[in-house]
Amino acid sequence: MGASTHRSVTVAIAVGLASGLALAGCSSSSSKPSAGTTGTTSSSSASGPASSSSSSASGTALPDLSGKSIQVLAEWSGEEQKSFQKVIDAFTAKTHASVSYQGAGDQTVTVLKSKLAGGGAPDVALVAQPGAIAQLAQAGQIKPLSDSVLSTIDANYAAGWKTLGTVNGKVYSIMFKAANKSTFWYNTAQFQQAGVTPPKTWDDFIKAAGTLSDAGITPVSVGGADGWTLTDWFENVYLSQAGPDNYDKLAHHKIPWTDPTVVQALTTLKQLFGNDKLLAGGKTGALQTDFNTSITQTFTAPPKAAMAYEGDFAGSVITSTTKAKLGADAAFFPFPAAGSLANFVVGGGDAALATNDNPATMAFIQFLASPEAAQAWASQGGFLSPDKNVPVSAYPDDTTKAEAQMLVGAGDNFRFDMSDQAPAGFGGTKGAGEWKDLQDFLSSGDPNAAAAQLEKDAAKETWQ
Asked: Which interval of the chain is the signal sequence (predicted)?
């Protein structure tokens, strides 16, 4: 979605017991919790190498990089930066390289482009925008990943993650830190009061909402004042109904927004958005409620709704703004399947890329693609890895374990947030493009008119 990563960063999920989690059988701006300020750190091996090579150490075999320096740029600061430093420390202990880190917040892509143009580019950058990575690759400003990196990726990731980082047949990036945006949060007491269980399908979801309403409980809180939340609603419905192939086509405007699959998804959403009885404050209230409030008001006393949809980062809002305990008072279920595809995840995340093909640069990315690197952060919390070989036991609490299982379990049915792949003018601008068009749809409830306006706005942009 361009220069602003409005919600691609996974925000730390507070530790909480989640024994009652219902999982149907069981990845950066002011519009969502912020990552904080920027920062710079460095790490090196002060005592020197323990041996001539670290290739015999446990985990991924890497060369001895004594005397080599690596610069890394990413968006993380505060607690996230401290957690990433654990990853850097593990790499340094393994290779004896010196690693310096700069955090650039939601300006990471802007800073990276500036450094590439003016000199002093970092060796490695972690970026939350596939579209920006594709542009850099096509401009020849970043390097394809080495065979050693690709071998590590093949051993640890489902094929879809490799495809996500592929441009013109070459792999330029790999996702290190992911976000699960297919989590639907609910107030357990409200469900129990109405005798409702977590729904697995969209039809069951609408029925459960009706049951809650009949019991005098407002079913759903929607943060429609932040247009990006509505894009996430659409993407989950669309992926389940239209399938991954059509999702990919629409994400790159290979099919128009007037396509029947789009109208069908909007018509499905109208079952909820068009019924004031099912929304906290009705349509008008939803359009006046921001993301944070939509989550908070579902878990305050008394609650204003029984459930609210948003990604795994909603957990940190619950724990920081209410007294609800994750897994006890607040739990989540997978976004209800609106179509034949039930095992899916829409998400975001931070992908590692290289600005040069130096051995040290490639070794760092190879390490990031290993379970060893993921476990170094996973143990700190606030982290999900798409690496299928990271053990569930690496995560610090049951809620995060369930989110991680859901993410990895989706396999090739994971799709990156569609609006984050779109040109910023369409998918990432407040009061314009998709954000505004879906807000207008929430207000009007006309699927065909909404599809026509979406296509009109999409046609104004240049797509990758």
From this structure: 1-24
Domain housing 63: 40-180+354-383
Q: What SS3 state is found at 177?
A: strand
- Nearest Cα residue to 351 out of 369, 371, 324, 325: 369
**167: which strand partners?**
170
pLDDT tens digits, one per residue of 286-304: 999 999 999 999 999 999 9
Average pLDDT, integer, range 252-269: 98
Bridge partners for 180 per DSSP: 347
Give the span between the Cα atoms of 78 and 37, in whole angstroms. 7
Residue with the bigger pLDDT between 53 and 166: it is: 166
**What is d(CA 174, CA 156) in angstroms, rounded to the nearest whole number?**
11
Percentage of the chain beyond pLDDT 70 is: 88
Cis before 359 (ω within 30):
no
Please tell me the distance from the alpha carbon of residue 52 to that of residue 439, in angstroms, as a whole number: 60
Here the CATH number for the domain that contains residue 122 is 3.40.190.10
Task: Report the C-alpha gap between 18 and 371 in whole angstroms.
Answer: 24
Shared-domain flag, residues 174 and 207 = no
- What H or E segment, with its residue span, contains residue 426? helix 424-427
pLDDT at 464: 77
Alpha carbon distances (Å) from 249 to 259, 302, 421, 450? 11, 44, 11, 19
Q: What are phi and psi of 201, to 5 degrees?
A: -120, 165
